[in-house]
Structure to design on (971 residues):
């Protein structure tokens, strides 16, 4: 053990992000002050990122159980039963802060990290989705972040052979200093092939395989390096660099090791590297682990033991192997050109011990490291004033009524201009320039590509061209409108969950499970604590009502800058569902001239916090109209059943920009026009937003059949080469398409 | 008829090619480190990022042990199809003329493209009906390039098999060239992915005729 004189101080602990009280608690658990290695490990495992100390109590209120759930929160990824002995594993995770520093590598390693979570439980990754938030596109920095983050996601996903099949992006001022990069991945496994991360079997070997360990991603622990070395210029870059080729080999190697039943347990190395993965494995298996840092293959020979323990070098996995299987494991690693090294042993000590060539460098109770970090109660308080400044008005006065409502009649005459302005606005315009940079079809499962349907649809089994009674598939959607959550954290979050389920309903899929990434600002501030508390309450209520339990997720807090203020609260929701026959997954676009168009569901739109209100420069309202979750769920059930029966031709959920934008999207995706009559000329009927509206086309009788379960209003018919609504809107497909392609110039 | 689909570390579309080939015959994977082609009747060099493609697309894969055998197989008249990264590998191995450069937009681009079948009597298009094939393309190094004399010679020899239809050449290929064959006609490479156009459910079946043509040719050669 190092001598007392070299022990780090409480000030070092504070510099590493711990509080003085936490440091005192660590001393108590250790029976004395921790040394450098121990403090580095505690500081990471007791960080917000690893310990969820401000969110864990809230997360415990969420529904996590249901008939489909095979693996719930706590494992590397959640998993739901999709029938036929198969499970779908999925999870969303954030890589916000690295992406703000270096968007290409930040986004790329975000994809790499979430893919490792999927194959760590024994599932083959089959799809990636991404959820991105940037400042307004007028900001040069935001355009740069967008361009590089999209390139990074593509670089990793395309190179590793996993399709990127969907996603979402919003541009809002509050994300200017804090962009969000969340990545979700899905995988498929046979149920009996799932593996957990619990280390079991005293005497078993702990084996590290994959890339070698370097000084990348050492993060806050570099404070120790500086203090130790007495020089500030030696801090290493803290953004990790991704190598998709290394991960491709690692993935194939891991899956083959599992297929050959050579592993007792498996865990990926993510945040906090070896420290976190070894401790978590020991904690789950209620054992101890000894690690010899001298056995870890290094990129730089002179790395300090604590650096080896906290390095976040990418593309590494840790596994537990029976001693007799070690040679077979190493042989398979050689086949895939992946380096593997036994670095430790499972013990019965209950201690996490770090050695170097026989010398004990640190020893900590696993329980203290993993479970004893104090959890904090939030102190929520609803703000009395406005948290967010009003956005800049983007529309000229002739189509922008004054706030007292005067001028609204004149503006109503300009519905054509408003629709075009919405279609070319950054949050509504076609995402084609982004998703064209992703391979959406590798693995031959993609039955609905981006912009073909509201949710991506993936065949469960490889298609073989044979005659089948049905083609079982899974559908997936990811969504969150942060502006609406900012206006009303409870209702906005309910709306985000409902939006995902509505997207699934449009392709005939029923929700099986949900994942979420809670992106919020500083939870120690009462108004942010209030956002978080209300949002989680909405998340729980909506998931319970839809029987779509939470099977995993992630929390990213402190997304605010000193001057920039908090981000919009952004609980990104990812939802997976199943559909019995992918051949009936409805497209979003209109299909046939002459089909009837109906508005289905309890649609009661309002301009509050809408896309149009944003373009007008309106400040956020205090609260949104309440949502009747049960009524929306009934509408989803009606649409789902109609799609599954093959009775309707197309289905599209009404979202940003309201009904007029949804109709325009149906026309553009189908390459055919529509004529529609609404009850009146009110702008909120055209452009207002709320949950629970669907544009469905087909034969009138099939559409009216849904009225047993929900409201059905016949709007008009699919016809011609233009979109005509009342006497207010008359725009050709070409005019709509030109406006809708506005994002192309960002990538020119 | 048995296809052998090569598998390099970093291959991504090898299983897709395997399933596509199995729609017209038997198929199996051939590991990059083995020299034994196991008596297959035709070779598919699949898409992906062989060995990471960190040097230049296909530049390392061409030196792999399996490629030594593929080169000998091709020189002996065996049918070889290179798709995307496989096309790049075949150009690097000088089994096909020309080279693939970065797309003019310098971005990975995925798009469904229309291809004109320029040569209909080849071992790779003999079973294709119709003038146009709708097949997806997805790559960042897909701009076909050859110098003027080579292009002229290729044109004279009927080596340009597929061209991008007007408006579909997103990568900036010379003369809209999407797929080329060698002078002997037994080696063919293209950037678009016919193995991803073999089922209506995933968008198109137009790619199937490439594999069916190979079967026809192989069986004709045997008969």
């Amino acid at each position: 053990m190092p001598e007392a004189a070299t022990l780090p101080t409480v000030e070092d602990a504070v510099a590493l992000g711990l509080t003085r009280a936490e440091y005192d608690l660590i001393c108590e658990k250790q029976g004395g002050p921790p040394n450098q290695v121990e403090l580095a490990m505690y500081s990471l495992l007791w960080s917000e990122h690893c310990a969820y100390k401000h969110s864990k109590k809230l997360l415990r209120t969420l529904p996590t159980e249901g008939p489909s759930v095979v693996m719930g929160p706590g494992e590397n990824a959640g998993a739901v039963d999709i029938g036929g002995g198969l499970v779908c594993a999925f999870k969303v995770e954030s890589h916000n802060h690295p992406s703000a520093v270096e968007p290409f590598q930040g986004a790329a390693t975000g994809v790499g990290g979430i893919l490792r979570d999927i194959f760590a439980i024994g599932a083959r990754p089959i799809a990636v989705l991404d959820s991105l938030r940037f400042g307004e596109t007028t900001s040069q920095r935001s355009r740069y972040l967008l361009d590089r983050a999209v390139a990074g996601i593509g670089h990793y996903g395309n190179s590793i052979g996993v399709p990127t099949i969907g996603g979402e992006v919003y541009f809002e001022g509050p994300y200017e200093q804090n962009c969000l990069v969340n990545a979700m991945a899905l995988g498929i496994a046979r149920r009996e092939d799932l593996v957990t991360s619990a280390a079991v079997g005293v005497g078993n070997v702990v084996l590290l395989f994959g890339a070698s360990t370097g000084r990348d991603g050492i993060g806050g622990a570099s404070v120790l390096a500086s203090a130790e070395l007495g020089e500030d210029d030696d801090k290493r870059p803290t953004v990790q660099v991704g190598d998709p080729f290394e991960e491709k080999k690692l993935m194939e190697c891991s899956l083959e090791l599992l297929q050959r039943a050579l592993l007792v347990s498996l865990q990926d190395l993510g945040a906090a590297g070896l420290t976190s993965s070894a401790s978590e494995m020991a904690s789950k298996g209620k054992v101890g682990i000894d690690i010899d840092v001298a056995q870890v293959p290094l990129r730089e020979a002179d790395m300090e033991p604590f650096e080896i323990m906290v390095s976040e070098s990418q593309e590494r996995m840790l596994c537990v192997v029976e001693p007799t299987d070690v040679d077979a494991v190493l042989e398979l690693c050689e086949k895939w050109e992946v380096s593997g090294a036994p670095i430790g042993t499972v013990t019965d000590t209950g201690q996490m011990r770090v050695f170097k060539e026989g010398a004990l460098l640190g020893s900590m109770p696993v329980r203290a490291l993993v479970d004893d970090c104090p959890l904090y109660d939030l102190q929520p308080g609803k703000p009395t004033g406005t948290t967010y400044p009003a956005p800049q008005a983007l529309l000229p006065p002739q189509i922008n009524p004054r706030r007292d409502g005067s001028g609204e009649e004149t503006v109503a005459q300009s519905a054509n201009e408003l629709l075009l302005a919405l279609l070319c606005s950054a949050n509504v315009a076609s995402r084609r320039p982004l998703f064209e940079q992703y391979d959406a079809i590798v693995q031959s499962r993609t039955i609905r590509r981006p912009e073909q349907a509201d949710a991506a649809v993936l065949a469960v089994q490889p298609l073989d061209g044979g005659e089948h009674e049905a083609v079982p598939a899974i559908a997936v959607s990811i969504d969150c409108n942060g502006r609406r959550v900012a206006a009303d954290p409870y209702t906005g979050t309910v709306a985000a969950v409902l939006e995902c389920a509505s997207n699934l309903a449009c392709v005939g899929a029923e929700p099986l499970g949900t994942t979420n990434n809670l992106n919020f600002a500083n939870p120690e501030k009462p108004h942010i604590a209030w956002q978080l508390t209300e949002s989680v309450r909405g998340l729980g209520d909506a998931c319970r009502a839809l029987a779509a339990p939470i099977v995993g997720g992630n929390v990213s807090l402190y997304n605010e800058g000193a001057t920039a203020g908090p981000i919009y609260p952004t609980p990104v929701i990812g939802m997976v569902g199943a559909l019995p026959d992918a051949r009936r997954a409805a497209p979003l676009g209109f299909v046939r001239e002459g089909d009837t168009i109906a508005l289905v569901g309890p649609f009661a739109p309002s301009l509050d916090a809408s896309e149009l209100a944003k373009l007008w420069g309106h400040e956020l309202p205090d609260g949104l109209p309440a949502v009747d979750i049960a009524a929306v769920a009934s509408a989803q059930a009606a649409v789902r059943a109609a799609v599954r029966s093959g009775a309707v031709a197309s289905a599209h959920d009404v979202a940003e920009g309201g009904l007029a934008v949804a109709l325009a999207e149906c026309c553009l995706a189908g390459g055919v026009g529509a004529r529609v009559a609404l009850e009146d000329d009110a702008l909120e009927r055209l452009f207002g937003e709320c949950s629970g509206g669907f544009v469905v086309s087909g034969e009138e009788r099939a559409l009216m059949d849904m009225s047993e379960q929900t409201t059905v209003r016949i709007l008009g018919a699919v016809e011609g080469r233009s979109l005509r609504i009342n006497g207010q809107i008359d725009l050709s497909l070409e005019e709509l398409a030109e406006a809708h392609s506005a994002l192309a110039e960002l990538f020119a | 008829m048995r296809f052998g689909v090569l598998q390099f570390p970093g291959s991504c579309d090898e299983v897709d090619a395997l399933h596509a080939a199995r729609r017209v015959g038997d198929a199996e994977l051939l590991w990059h480190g083995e020299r034994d082609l196991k008596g297959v009747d035709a070779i598919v060099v699949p898409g992906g990022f062989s060995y990471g493609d960190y040097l230049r697309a296909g530049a390392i894969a061409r030196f792999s042990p399996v490629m030594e055998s593929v080169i000998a197989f091709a020189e002996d008249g065996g049918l070889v199809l290179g798709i995307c990264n496989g096309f790049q590998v075949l150009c690097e191995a000088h089994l096909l003329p020309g080279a693939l450069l970065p797309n003019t937009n310098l971005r990975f681009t995925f798009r469904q493209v229309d291809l004109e079948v320029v040569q209909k009597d080849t071992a790779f298009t003999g079973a294709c009906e119709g003038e146009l094939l709708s097949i997806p393309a997805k790559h960042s190094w897909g701009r076909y390039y050859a110098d003027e004399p080579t292009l002229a010679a290729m044109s004279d020899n009927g080596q340009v098999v597929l061209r991008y239809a007007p408006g579909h050449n997103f990568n900036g290929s010379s003369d809209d060239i999407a797929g080329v064959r060698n002078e002997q006609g037994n080696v063919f490479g293209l950037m678009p992915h016919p193995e991803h156009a073999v089922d209506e459910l995933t968008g198109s079946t137009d790619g199937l005729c490439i594999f069916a043509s190979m079967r026809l040719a192989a069986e004709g050669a045997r008969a």
User: Anything to note?
Assistant: Confidence is low (pLDDT under 50) at residues 1-5, 220-236 of chain A. Residues 65-191+384-747 of chain A form a domain with the 60s Ribosomal Protein L30; Chain: A; fold (CATH 3.30.1330.10). The longest helix of chain A spans residues 140-160. The longest strand of chain A covers residues 124-134.
